[in-house]
């Protein structure tokens, strides 16, 4: 099966200014998060994939179709929800969504039916006969989502879908995105400044910095890789406990007197820790699997400079620590 | 994705042919246009002249009706090239005002609401968008210009006989071509204005100004320099020359005026610009409009 997006040395320049430079990589996730600080090139990448801007170097493929040679065909596979307010004034929402469906190639009757269905799906069923200029910001965002999914695209590109939404509407939007992702009928590309949104929806992320790929990692694998990274809160002879787990081959570090972070090596289980604790009469009050949050990955990518598409997931955070108990995890 | 199922499902039904998708835009635009009662009234008014012309043609061929109305056949307007030229001129003028009513919001509304990324993120190109928007004007103005014009021509041919049709076939081409050229000019001009001026009233005013101000300026040039070259900057004068040319009524020499040279009064012959110059001027105007239009019709404007 073709990857969702293949970046093959893609570069975009506006005049002499290079916005995207030599992007390479393959994105296969069910939901791909596109992250980066302002001006990193996220929106330009989306626009280039949609054929709005020509690539000045290299190319990209969506489901194996070249973005330059097969631009029109690609756009029939893609649904796009732009960041800024985009609608047609003095038009009812159902009329607007129907028009968009027809432009995607659906016959008028089918387009009208799907327009009603998608508006009900996003939760605008009761307001579908109101004109778009009377909608609140949250409703406009949902209407934009409805027009993006009305023709049943294989890839849905969402540019800042939760921008300006109040918490309940944001939760609704996130739930819809997750539902579409879990249906398995469409892949999603989500560009957002909000790391929490990306963390909740995406299983793969692409971090851009200064028009280059700063990180490209699979969040699922990252989470699995970090399952042996543990944080323990305890009472008792903590030093002796630390030395004992060190003798088991665990890398560890105290974050304060009562807290210990450690990485379990192969062959060591949680029950071994409880056993040591029992032998040393140490109370384990709390034991957490400490995951590398998306924020950690993002910040690391921002500090790391131009890693050019190398997966940050390869390096778990604990690897940087020593096993002498004085390192920091 | 049935309403009761509330789940995401892809669309698996049939698709419309790609070539026909530009027609979606005029179909949806007509819904808005015909919501205005003023527009409907004006549009209905545009059919008055064709109706009167049809009655005239009928009267020409109905002896009983002429006798009943106690008319002399010589009093009636002759049905010839001038008749159809007058018809095209009149209907095309109405077409201009129709365009002033419907043209300005066509692109500006999409630009003001940032709707172009939505159109262009679908299998729908910029060219199709422009052609679709032009079709709104092309279809409506065609309904009041060359379509009734050709119907009148066919009515006359039917009543007069096959001989007249053979002799005047050129008139049918002239009716069609004269109207079509004007409609295309109106369409590109109004879309270009609509793309650059977001306010409807200002855009309508600009359309009127583009038509009338250069005409006035051209007349000033003509008067000052005792020439007719000023007509090349007047859209109305250019079209008038072209229409006359198409109907075989064009004359370069349009009169003589008295002038002074070396202290003597002389007769100066006024010559209209040649037809090729009018065609060239029109092509330049249209090319400029298309350039301006395509510069604005983009999903996103890139600020370099």
Structure explained in plain terms:
The complex is a heterodimer of chains A (329) and B (304). Helix content of chain A is 35%, strand content 26%. Chain A has 329 residues and is of the alpha/beta class. In chain A, helix 3 (93-103) crosses helix 4 (108-122) and helix 4 (108-122) packs across helix 5. The radius of gyration of chain A is 24 Å and the shape is elongated. The model of chain A is unreliable at 306-329 (pLDDT under 50). With 304 residues, chain B is mainly alpha-helical. Helix content of chain B is 66%, strand content 6%. A two-stranded antiparallel ribbon of chain B has the order 1-2. Chain B is globular and about 80 Å long. At the A-B interface, helix 2, helix 3, helix 4 and helix 6 of A face helix 1, helix 6 and helix 7 of B.
Task: Kindly list the characteristics that best describe this protein.
heterodimer; A: 329 residues; alpha/beta; six-stranded mixed β-sheet; four-stranded antiparallel β-sheet; elongated; B: 304 residues; mainly alpha; two-stranded antiparallel sheet; 14 helices; 66% helix
